[in-house]
Structure formats: C-alpha cells, structure tokens
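A common beginner's mistake is to predict each chain separately and then try to dock the pieces by hand. The better habit, illustrated here, is to supply every component at once so that their relative placement is modeled jointly.
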Amino acid sequence: MDISRREFLKKIAGLSAILFGSKTAFELLAPGELEAQYLPKPEALKAKRWAMVVDMGKMDEETINKCIEACHRIHNVPDFAEENPRHIVKWIWTEPYENAFPGLEQEHIAKRLKDKLFIVMCNQCDNPACVRVCPTKATFQREDGIVMMDMHRCIGCRFCMAACPFGSRNFNWRDPRPFIKERNPEYPTREKGVVEKCNFCAERLAKGLMPACVEVSNGGLIFGDLADKNSQVRKALREHYTIRRKPYLGTDPQVYYIVDTLL
Amino acid sequence: MFEKALVGSKKYWGLVIVLLSIIGIGFILYMWQLKVGLGITGMSRDVSWGFYIAQFTYLVGIAAGGVMVVLPYYLHDYKAFGRITILGEFLAVAAVTMCILFIIVDLGKPMRLFNVLLHPTPNSILFWDMIVLNGYLMLNIVVGWMVLQCERNGAPPPKWLKVIAYISIPWAPSIHIVTAFLYQGLPGRGYWLTAIMAPRFLSSAFCSGPALVLLLALLIRKYTKFDPGREQIQSLGKIVTYLIIINVLFICFEIFTVFYSQIPEHLHHYKYLFTTGSKIPPLMWISYIGMVIAAILLVFPAIRRNEGSLAVCCVLVIITTWIDKGLGLMIGGFVPNPFGRAFEYWPTLPETLISLGVWATGFLVVTILYKIAVSVKEEIRA
Amino acid sequence: MYDAGKTIVGLIILFAFVTFPFFYNAGRAAKVPEPKIDTPAIKKLPEIERKCVESTPYMRQNHMKLLDDWRDWVVRKANRDYTGFTGKKYTVSLQNTCLECHSNYDKFCDECHTYMGIKPYCWSCHVEKPKEWAKELKEEK
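With all components supplied together, the output reads:
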C-alpha cells in the first residue's frame, strides 16, 4: 500500500487520540461509587432557604461583641487589626447605620439610629453575584440557600470579592496561622491565597446546632427556614418592620434587620 | 525562522540582556510572593484587585489594538498595510502573553489554575476570558508565523490561513469586550456599572494599540534596514486620531451621565479620583487633559505629517490611556468601598518590580519576534 | 560531526548531571517507611475494632480519592455520615475523624509521603497544631 509520510502521521495521530481519549472518557464517564454511602446526619438541621433576622432592639454592644468573638473563635479567624489593617479578615463585624445602609442615610436621622452599630456579615443572598462570577464554582449556592466556600478549589482570583456589593468577603493575603489568637481544633484554618467568609455555620447546622452567633445572641439573632411558614424568622418578618442592605441591587440578601424595636 | 533571533547587533543583544535582567529581578520577587503571599502587594480587603489586574486590562487593549492593522488589509484590501500586519500580530502575541502572565501573578493559588478547565463555569466571565485570550494567542501565533514563513519562501499563503485571519478580526474586539464585561456586570461597583465600559475599553484599545505599533515601526525604521513605510505610518496616525477623539467623547458621555444625574454611588468614585484621593488625582487630571490635548493636536494634518510630532502625540496617547486604564480604573472601582469609606491603594515596590518583570517579558517577546520578522523582510528585499 | 569537541564535552556533562543522584546515593538504601499506628486513640480501642473506614489495601491505594470525595460530599452536599466497609458510621471529617485516630500524622502519614517525596499541604489547614505549636502545647502541660 503506497501511503505518504504525511498521511501516515495523520492516521497515527488520529489513532493515538482515540486510544488515549477513550481511556480518559471511560474514567470520566465511569459510574461513581454508591451515593448511599454518604448521608446527611440524622440530627442535621434542614431547610429550603436559611435566613437570619437581626433584632436590633436586642443587639446592644455587649451582645454584638459576644457574637463576633464566638464566630471568630470557632472558625479560627485571624486577627490582623494590629499587624496590618489591609489584611484584616472578618466574618462578622459592626458598621454604623450610614455605612451599613449607604443610600438610606439622611441629615436629620433619629439619634438612636445614627449612633447604633449594626452587626453585618455575609448576606447569603438568594441571587448571589459572587456565585455568578466564580470561574471554578469554588463559591456556590447550596440547596438550602447557603453560599458556601470550597477552600480546596478556590484559585484566589478574587473576582467574588469584586462582585460582592456588601464587602463581606475576605482574602488571606498571607499565612493566617500566626495571627489566630485562640485556635479551635475542630475546625480547619485556611492557607494564604484563598477567599473566606461567613458560612452560616454550616458545620454546626450539620450537627443540629444553631450558628454560633445566634446561640450567644440571647434572642437578638433569629435564625430559621424562610420556606417554613411557622418558623421564627417568618414570624419575625410578619410582625416587624425589617430592612435589608442594598436590596435594590437584586442580589436578594437573606439577612433582615428589625428596626422598629429600636425606636 | 528562529535562527534569525540568534544573530544580531550589539544593540540587539544589549537590549535582550537588559530585558532578561529585569525579568530576573521580577522572577525572584515573584518567588518571594509565592512564598509569603499576595500581602507583599498594596492590595487590601477593600481594594482586592490592583496593579496586576490593571496592567492585564490595559494589555488586553493593546492586544486587541493589533486588529486595527490587520482589518484594513484583510477586509478592505488596503494593500499598504500588507507590509506591517506582522507588526500588529506579533505585538498581539506579546501583549496576550503579558496578560496571561499578569493573571497568573495575581492569583492567590496559581498552582490551581487548571481548576478553571476542570470545572468549566459558563456563567463566569473569567471562564470566557480564559477561552478568548488563549484562542487569540493561538490565532495570532499561527497567522503571524505562517504569513511570515510564506513571505520568506516566496509562496502564497494557504487558503485556510485567510480563514484564520478572518476569524481573528472579530475575535480581537471580543477579547476586550469580554474583559470589559468582567467589570460592567458587577452590581456593587458604581464606577464600573455602565454600558459604556465596553465601548470605552475598545476606543482606548484601538488608539493605544496602533499608537504603540506606530512607535515600534518608527524604531524599526531607525534601527534596522526595514522601512515600514511613510504611508503606513500616516494611516496608523489617522487611526489613532479618530480613536482618541472617540475615546474622549465616550469619557465625556460618562462624565455627563454621572455628574448630571448626581447619583452618589456613581459620583463618589469620580470625586475620589479627581479631588479627594491622595496620589491619584494629579495623575487623573494629567490623563484626561492629556487625552484632550492629544486629540486636538492630532486633528491637524501638519502635526501628523511631521513624524516627530506624531510620535510625541502617540506617546501622549499611550501614557494617558495607561493612567486611565492601568491605574484609575482599578482605584476608582474599589474606592470608596461598599461602605462608603475611602481606603487608599498604591502599588508597593515588590508589586511594581514584579509588574516590570512581566512587562519586560512582553518586550522581550516583541524584540525577538520583531527581530525575526524584520530579518526576514530584510532578507527578502535583498 | 560538526563541533565534535564541544558536542562530546557537552554530552559528558549532561550524562554526569543526569546520573548524579544515582552516584551520590550509591550504596545507601533509603529507610523503608514504617507508618506507626500506636496512637493513644487507637490503643484505647479493642483489637477487633481497630479498623479504618475502609480496608487497609483500599486505603493505601485510594485514600486521596476518598478524601477528595469526602470533601465534595461535605462541602457541596452537606452529607456528613459515611458508612464504612464494616457497616460502622463515621463523621466525614479529615480533622475530626481520620486525625482523631491517626493523630501522629508526622509518624504515620508523613512516613510514606516523605519516602515518596510527596508534600501534600493538608497540614497547613487540617491539623490541630502544627509542629511549632505542638511544642507550645507540651510546655503548657
């Protein structure tokens, strides 16, 4: 058979592509292991849409500080305040009214609102901009509504930080371990180069516990399933006037602030 | 044709060595950044993208600008540009290389880069950016190299090459549109949330890209035996003129909308950039006033006919568009932050040196590729 | 051959460079890895219950794949109950399940990893205290 060198090379290349490609394709398409091996814990808290209602009337400065301290302690959040304010990592913190709700400020605002420190965290939006922009789905929305971080997949591109309209996200600009004041051995720390933020204590919900901040807030933070008509959060939303941060941007934030108990 | 890059005058090798040293310094500092983290840069929790991504944005523009040399020749049969399409294509290769390098140095976990391919996410604009950038790199390498090779062998290019060249023409603006989409789709950043971001990107790209090609063409004429041609340089000058005027117009449109509507979330960023910021306002004023001056000067044919004054205007165009895209865009977008507070950003020395290292890499690629192109053209004409 | 002198000298240098590791380590055998499973947590268990979540040959070959799957099921699906090959249920967690028994990660995990020249970065996040902190812990006690 007379075949030119060029034709021969083309045919061999095609054959090799098929051979190697089929091995790869087989491994990719091969049936996975039994999914029944992985189950949610029986005591895990379940919801269709987790949400939090902050009763600002009950959130005095002492309670707020307890919430912040609890969250940062159990999640091994580093403290960069003295070292370098540029690198601060904070999952939950306080902002004055006019900074938490830019656009709602007014010159003759009630003094009780003006001086009040609002507790802020990731709003776990229902239409999150950060999830839309993540190129690897390292940040993604779970079925129960929580916007999670997969620290192993994050490439540190910080697109999510640019997309978040609420400034809720943090980046590990350097190794956080030397700056963790008190470590919790049950929760991992993070490495430099990945983004992190409040995760509504997903690891506690899986064990049947309320988020840490909710537990120490003494009723100031109400947490529950928005899809459940009878939940505490729905009751609170029915009975009080609540506001959200920047709802007009369309991200549908799921942290609501009761302000009528303030005034 | 690589052997053409291995022989050269003392000046050529001197340039290569200088560039290699700058690359070396940048590389060593990047190793340090890999070890310690991105904290060595000036970026912060509030300004989470900085100099690296700003340079990437500017260079995508330069890469797209190469199409302004290719389009007239392939689509409108403007034979004069046949001499210099190679300059546009090889500059695009160098610019896209720099873009990819800037993205890599900016990543917190560059070793996980493959995740973008392993977990494709079509709703993320960064995913599309990866596709269009790499595609454009391949297109320009193939077209540039093949056309040069065919020219050297005295044979007409194969038919499929024209198809690839035609594909690269709409691909070029698309790389910059995708880059603009990175910014203009973010709901919380008032400075960027405007439909005119993409047109502004394109207009500044299509004046700064050809301006750079023009300057490089003048350098080639001075230092080698290949003359890109007076008519070609004049045509490039006309392109730069029209596009800088359009760029200034687009900026005026944006300023009108922002300042007439008086919406704080858009206005605050301009106020910061032009008045209350610390190091940035003088630079922004220089940029905007400089762009207007360049636009006015370039209108006059006498100024364009004199290649010296034309070159000065091109330098002005490049500097002013660089300040606008390579500094103002990033700082203006992130400051004030979503809480209305101004947190200063300025690149640190390591950040600047790493960036210089990447720029030097691009210039080295340009030097080598242009050396090959020019040597081939000198060889043909001999 | 063109430039015979330079080529042959270059080839000799290349050969020396490439084979250097073999000559340098000639005659020395690397220590066979012996992962130790005599941690306090394991010693507390009766002999029959000293089993991992999967069989030893399976774990030897697939522990990294298992950990990857565990991570995806916990982070992405919130399923934290794993049924091992003995039928026993385990909480899916490297830090709180695997390292509960294998708390001596430097004498267990790192034994084979160091031998193979692998440096997984699990310990920069998933260990109670890195080696430096472990010293402090001893001093605290």
